[in-house]
Design brief:
Blueprint: H1 3-8, H2 10-15, H3 21-24, H4 30-37, E1 47-58, E2 61-69, E3 80-81, E4 84-86, H5 94-106, E5 114-118, E6 122-124, E7 129-137, E8 151-158, H6 159-162, E9 168-173, E10 181-188, E11 191-193, H7 195-212
Parallel strand pairs: 1-7
Antiparallel strand pairs: 1-2, 1-4, 2-3, 2-8, 5-7, 6-7, 9-10, 10-11
Amino acid sequence: MNFQEFLRYVPKLIEARLPAFDAHIKMAPLERLESLKNSNIEDKNPRIAAVMMLFYPKNERTHLVLIVRNSYKGVHSAQIAFPGGKYELEDKDFADTALRETHEEVGIHPDKIEILKPFTELYIPPSNFMVHPFLGISKEELVFVPQPSEVANIIELPLSVFLDDALVVDTNLSTSYADDISIPAFKIEEHIVWGATAMMLSELKEVLKEVLR
């Protein structure tokens, strides 16, 4: 989709209803469903993080940025994610966290990003994080500068590709909580995107399809 055309839908995106749990469960591993229904998450005292779902123009077409995390000793090693990270005490709010982390991880200054709205927060049991996603846009072409210590690669995903239902696949993976389980995922280029990022992508995709139809 042409980016100028996409901008015409921004007011509708801001007003759109969020499908929340109904969208999340479509891309959730079965083993995660119980934790999603868990009403006692606050008892776990989760850490807080925020991520940026950022749309921008590239060659006049609308794109969404994702990152490939570096390999490390941790549950999210080498996974596909949105730019973002942990809330720090100096952050004014969770939106500020998403902006700061996007700047740190991919080099995009907060002044270049307009936050449209928060999306539904999502609890991640393996790392005990409550993640707050934010939908943002930049109206100019961006040059990403990945932070070498955290980001192995940048994925610039065209909106038209993201909205293609052929991206959704079932695959078998071994995770931090189960071996060789079948999970729903997005297949983006050579990458399998699953878990929390896939669940947030699911909500984003449903909202976009409702608004753009």
